Amino acid sequence: MSPLPELNLNLGMSNIDPATNESKDEIVVRTDSGLRKHSISMIISDQEAGKVHLKINNKEVEVPTYKLTVTDDKTNETEAYQVTRDTLNFVKTTTKKSFLSFLGIKRFDKTSFLYENIAYEPLRENIEKFDISRHRSLSQDKLIYLLSGNGQSIMLYSGNINEFEKPDEINQYFIIVDNNDGKSFIGDILYREKFLKLTPKVELQIIRRSKVAKNFEYDDKGNIKRTIYF
Fold first, then answer.
1. Per the structure, how many domains does the chain have?
2. Which residues, in sequence order, are CB contacts of 170 under 8 Å at separation 6+?
3. Which one, of 90, 76, 64, lies nearest residue 177 by Cα?
4. 135, 127, 125, 141: which is closest to 156 by C-alpha?
5. Does residue 14 form part of some domain?
6. Where on the tree of life does the source sit, at the highest rank (predicted)?
7. How far apart are CA 218 and CA 49, in angstroms?
8. What's this model's pTM, rounded to 2 decimal places?
């Protein structure tokens, strides 16, 4: 059965200008629904794209980012962003003393900070899909999607990364990085929603990584010193 054609309907009325006796068309209703609901697709890849510094437990630490692509099935326009995939919790501080430490000279001591990683990864398939259309919160400078998988509550966050705070009920999170405090990503989504007219379905796909870090060890500047894998 062939798909129904898209409709471009313009319902209007004509007014007669008494001065010129010419008719002028005024559009009353304009719609382009096409009798189908369009969708926005997001894909979080397993491809590392860069790094970003996040404030976790009152310390800024370096976190890897991964490629995030956004597209829709009407414009077919694709945009790329970065997103974090690792949820870190502070474990302990370790100080390795130099031989001068016994003489009271501490500046050569090296302190490292260990964080455990509780990352969300698809368990059964290489790619896991979520419909996140109904579970979103939008404010002027923040867009949040909530999803659940493997019994976990997960957040997809776009906004100022320095203002991000993990809610207690959230187990894992993904933070979108666009170098514009989330505004580029939010504007992209709102543009697509407006262009698609009907509230679109939003689908998120997460690709499973082949290697997932168990722990991150940081130096005193918050840079990754060592990554420990499962």
1. 1
2. 153, 154, 155
3. 64
4. 135
5. no
6. Bacteria
7. 20
8. 0.80
